[in-house]
């Protein structure tokens, strides 16, 4: 490359001429120029100042000559130099170096780089830092081609091929010993390595296995598990025999098939007073995972200016220095320590990271607050003593380095960064990411990467990576972490950044270093800070999340899912996706049921299959098969079944709403026994049956209420969204149980009469489901209903408004106001109600939609929710119920066992206010032209229009009825800003007021009358005087 010289002018409007060796600006006036010369081998630039003078036509004035003017300028310059206590200029005066100069602290000698001579079988190259030399050249000589090293699993086949024997004499001859005197003789013109991969190769050696002795006698003698002496153990035969007799007696009377271990557990007596429960306040992470991406004690160093480097260092006081920021993180404490001369960028990054760790409980830290410490300030405080105690005691540490050290460290520490990609069963170096700042573009959902940052080694895998590849990557990553390391060719040793305590080469990393496994979207803050553009990725993910939320609001919810043995069986029949991803057909093989009693179980006959009582518990065993289909699904006839799939089993234990605790425990125990060999166990609560469970009975499921011996008229509500999922739920036989949007079945077994009643707003699909349920009942004639196989049942369909006299007589005295009759309502009611849970428990007030477990993607569900959805939630609760014509805000009750303090009331009132504002805004968005009315409903005081949205409702007669309020009126009462003196001094206080700031709700005249002073005078008083004055006036 030819020599080039560039003349840079301080003027803007210039002419220039191109020359093969020199480019000059030609200007018409007196100008100062800088000449930059660069050779092909010189990195530094030579700067020369050239002064060109030309005659100027400007008249400087007759009173002052050019010499006098130059003298005045020179005097001003001398005055400027003497200004500011000898500082050259403001830029130097207010930098870290300027502050250090003011304090009189000498800068620590900056880091130097040792030249390293590699062995003869590697490319000959030398390393130096050109930033410390000016005007000298840096030569790069490469005599051999670089070779990438591949990580493989250690086994007997590759061990000998990978490692070759080396003579000890060669190792002794090739060893290089560096002393303190040698480091001072390093020349700054040493060549620099340019190949990043060759410069940072890792020699990963497997752990050598010590071969055991081949002598079998010695091996036998070395065993400790062979006993030579027999010790007799005496047993209490009488107590063992007594226990055996008790177990046999229980098994004989209960006639159970439970295992012996289960019977022994039921027969045993435990004293729970002697049981010591584990404290839930413990913050230690209890897990068997040895690849957690954090340690119990971590000291994190934050250093840099442009891209701040966040690195794990040894948790001792020697690792600190006055020029950087440090984070000390334990499971219970979180400290931020700032050096006196740390720059603003380091402090900002440290504050941001420590706030994230504490708020998100990242890195295993569950500290309640962040403790901020600054060097030289409050050194005798309790928090400072705890900080130094965690670091092993306060000792001397390094001062601040030169101002240029941060930038040198940023570039030097990147030399030790290594990134590997999993290829088969090998780790292959990633050339693009090697010895550079990683980018989030490397992270692919289908890839496994291993990041080696020296003191931290991470195995990262995407969400679509198979389990086998994840295990292989963790195994290879552990070999890399526990194997040998070589940082002799790196400018900065990541294991020992400031001192020469830890060698640049060795076997096995220190115990304070970190090896962890990370998955996609579960990265720690310490890992994320290593990347250049992670903040941009978070913005993109947030934007994508917003788009997804909008789409979820616009589209209907997806189909239901029931996953058994890793396969989504959906609604329990038809075509499904097998575990290998291919299309398959699901078919039921057999269905068996057991009735759980207090001390055993009873298998139900097939004619009683599907007859469940709300006070009992049952076990339903489902045997099914999944057959893979062959052919393309172009036409139904072209799809043929392949080989029959294996038989699978799923055990559902159904628990009624009024079943006892012992029955629930016995059902769970028996379910485990039935599914001990294979299969899934699924808990099913009454009212929350999935479509997969409902289809087992093919429309014949009946849930009975009360005793089995009840005779006379019985009323059942029809539920289900498909004919095979139809079910009958027994309700009170009265007019209040009727619903205009549903169908019901009225049965008298003695008379053999069945009325199939349809409400005036029941849609066609609900009527078909009701007919299927009635047909199944008449076909099976279950004995639980007082029928037999010889019984004859006459079915009669009845429409609302045209009921016969016998139907009305069966339901008792006729009362038109017993239920919400819609005969006079012209609406079509072809919509599905929606339910939202409103809560601020997560810290942000939000609404979560509740979906029916038996929902359908298409069609209308008239009554998808139950009373239990509201009353089973943690109280007090808030629900928004959208019934198209009107919107309800249901407000729960305050439990008696909870202590409601002043702050709790304030939070509850604030949450209520947010809920009311949300409901009003929901009504505006729902119909901008004509807002639907919004009503506030209190628990226990629900009107008929509200309770009839549910298929059945149990009223609490002990609660007095309350007037239904509009949400708008309730919000205005809750947001009232002024109250009278009597309202604020009386008990209870008005809703929505802050009990600690009652004076704010007084008008100015009332304020002066009660407190005998103005607001301005009251605000000037100390807090304790304000508090005492309010107490004396009863305003507290």
Automatic annotation (TrEMBL):
InterPro entries: ADF-H/Gelsolin-like_dom_sf, Gelsolin-like_dom, Villin/Gelsolin, Villin_headpiece, Villin_headpiece_dom_sf. The keyword Transmembrane helix does not apply. The keyword Acetylation does not apply. PROSITE patterns: HP. Keywords: Actin-binding. CDD domains: gelsolin_S2_like, gelsolin_S4_like. Residues 973-1036 form the HP domain. GO terms for cellular component: actin cytoskeleton; cytoplasm. GO terms for molecular function: actin filament binding; phosphatidylinositol-4,5-bisphosphate binding. It comes from the Eukaryota. One of its GO terms (biological process) is actin filament severing. Belongs to the villin/gelsolin family. This is Supervillin d. It comes from Cyclopterus lumpus. The lineage of its organism: Eukaryota, Metazoa, Chordata, Craniata, Vertebrata.
């Amino acid at each position: 490359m030819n020599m080039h010289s560039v003349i840079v002018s301080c003027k803007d409007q210039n002419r220039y001429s191109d020359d093969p060796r020199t480019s000059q600006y030609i200007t018409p006036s007196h100008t100062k120029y800088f000449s930059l010369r660069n050779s092909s081998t010189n990195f530094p630039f030579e700067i020369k100042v050239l002064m060109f003078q030309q005659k100027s036509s400007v008249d400087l004035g007759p009173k002052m000559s050019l010499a006098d003017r130059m003298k005045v300028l020179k005097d001003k310059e001398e005055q400027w130099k003497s200004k500011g206590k000898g500082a050259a200029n403001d830029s130097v005066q207010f930098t870290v170096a300027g502050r250090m100069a003011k304090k009189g602290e000498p800068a620590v000698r900056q880091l130097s780089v040792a030249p390293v001579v590699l062995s003869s079988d590697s490319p000959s190259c030398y390393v130096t830092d050109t930033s410390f030399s000016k005007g000298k050249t840096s030569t790069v000589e490469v005599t051999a081609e670089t070779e990438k090293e591949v990580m493989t699993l250690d086994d007997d086949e590759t061990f000998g091929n990978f490692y070759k024997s080396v003579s000890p004499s060669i190792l002794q001859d090739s060893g290089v010993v560096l002393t303190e005197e040698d480091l001072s003789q390093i020349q700054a013109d040493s060549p620099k390595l340019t190949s990043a991969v060759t410069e940072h190769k890792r020699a990963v050696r497997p752990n050598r296995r010590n071969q055991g002795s081949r002598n079998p006698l010695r091996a036998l003698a070395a065993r400790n598990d062979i006993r030579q002496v027999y010790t007799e153990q005496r047993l209490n035969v009488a107590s063992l025999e007594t226990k055996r007799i008790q177990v046999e007696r229980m098994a004989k009377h209960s006639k159970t098939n439970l295992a012996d271990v289960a019977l022994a557990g039921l027969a045993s007596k435990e004293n729970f007073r002697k049981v010591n429960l584990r404290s839930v306040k413990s913050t230690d992470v209890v897990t068997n995972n040895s690849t957690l991406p954090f340690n119990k004690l971590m000291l994190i160093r934050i250093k840099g200016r442009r891209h701040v480097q966040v690195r794990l260092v040894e948790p001792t006081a020697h690792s600190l220095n006055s020029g950087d920021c440090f984070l000390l993180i334990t499971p219970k404490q979180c400290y931020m320590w700032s050096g006196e001369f740390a720059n603003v960028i380091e402090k900002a990054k440290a504050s941001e990271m420590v706030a994230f760790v504490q708020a998100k409980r990242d890195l295993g830290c569950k500290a309640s607050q962040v403790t901020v410490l600054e060097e030289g300030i409050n050194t005798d405080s309790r928090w400072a003593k705890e900080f130094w105690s965690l670091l092993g005691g306060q000792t001397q540490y390094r001062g601040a380095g030169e101002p240029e050290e941060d930038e040198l460290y940023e570039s030097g520490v990147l030399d030790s960064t290594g990134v590997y990609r999993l290829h088969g069963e090998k780790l292959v170096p990633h050339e693009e990411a090697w010895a550079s700042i990683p980018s989030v573009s490397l992270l692919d959902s289908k890839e496994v990467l291993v990041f080696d940052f020296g003191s931290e080694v991470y195995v990262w895998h995407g969400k679509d990576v198979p389990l086998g590849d994840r295990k292989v990557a963790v195994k290879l990553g552990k070999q890399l972490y526990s194997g040998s390391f070589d940082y002799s060719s790196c400018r900065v040793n990541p294991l020992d950044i400031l001192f020469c305590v830890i060698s640049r080469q060795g076997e096995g990393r220190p115990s304070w270093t970190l090896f962890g496994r990370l998955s996609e979207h579960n990265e720690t803050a310490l890992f994320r800070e290593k990347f250049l553009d992670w903040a941009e990725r978070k913005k993109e993910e947030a934007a994508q999340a917003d788009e997804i939320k909008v789409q979820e609001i616009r589209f209907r919810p997806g189909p239901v899912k029931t996953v058994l043995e890793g396969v989504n069986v959906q609604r329990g029949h038809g075509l499904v996706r097998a575990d290998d991803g291919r299309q398959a057909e699901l078919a039921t093989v057999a269905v068996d049921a057991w009735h759980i009693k207090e001390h055993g179980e009873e298998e139900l006959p097939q004619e009683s299959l599907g007859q469940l009582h709300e006070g009992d518990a049952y076990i339903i065993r489902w045997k099914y098969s999944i057959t893979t289909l062959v052919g393309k699904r172009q036409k139904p006839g072209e799809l043929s079944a392949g080989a029959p799939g294996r038989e699978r089993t799923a055990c559902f234990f159904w628990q009624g709403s009024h079943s006892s605790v012992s029955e629930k425990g016995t059902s769970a125990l028996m379910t485990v026994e039935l599914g001990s060999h294979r299969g899934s166990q699924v808990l099913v609560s009454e009212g929350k049956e999935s479509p997969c469970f409902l289809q087992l009975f093919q429309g014949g499921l009946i849930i009975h209420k009360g005793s089995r011996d009840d005779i006379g008229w019985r009323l059942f509500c029809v539920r289900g969204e498909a004919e095979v999922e139809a079910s009958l739920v027994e309700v009170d036989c009265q007019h209040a149980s009727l619903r205009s949007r549903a169908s019901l079945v009225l049965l008298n077994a003695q008379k053999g009469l069945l009325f199939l009643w349809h409400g005036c707003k029941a849609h066609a699909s609900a009527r078909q489901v009701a007919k299927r349920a009635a047909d199944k009942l008449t076909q099976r004639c279950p004995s639980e209903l007082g029928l037999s196989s010889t019984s004859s049942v006459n079915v009669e369909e009845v429409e609302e408004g045209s009921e016969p006299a016998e139907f009305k007589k069966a339901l008792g005295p006729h009362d038109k106001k017993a239920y919400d009759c819609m005969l006079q309502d012209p609406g079509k009611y072809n919509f599905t109600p929606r339910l939202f849970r409103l809560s601020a428990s997560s810290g942000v007030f939000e609404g979560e939609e509740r979906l029916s477990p038996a929902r359908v993607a298409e069609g209308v569900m008239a009554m998808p929710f139950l009373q239990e959805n509201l009353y089973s939630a943690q109280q007090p609760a808030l629900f928004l119920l959208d019934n198209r014509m009107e919107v309800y805000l249901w407000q729960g009750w305050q439990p008696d066992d909870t202590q409601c303090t002043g702050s709790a009331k304030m939070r509850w009132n604030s949450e209520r206010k947010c809920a009311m504002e949300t409901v009003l805004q929901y009504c505006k968005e729902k119909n901008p032209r004509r807002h639907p009315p919004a009503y506030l409903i209190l628990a226990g005081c629900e009107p008929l229009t509200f309770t009839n949205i549910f298929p059945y409702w149990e009223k609490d007669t002990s609660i007095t009825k309350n007037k239904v309020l509009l949400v708008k009126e309730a919000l205005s009462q809750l947001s009232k800003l002024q109250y009278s003196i009597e309202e604020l001094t009386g008990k209870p206080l008005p809703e929505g007021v802050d009990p600690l700031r009652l004076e704010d709700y007084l008008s100015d005249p009332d304020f002066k009358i009660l407190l005998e002073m103005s607001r301005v005078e009251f605000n000037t008083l100390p807090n304790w005087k304000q508090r005492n004055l309010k107490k004396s006036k009863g305003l507290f």
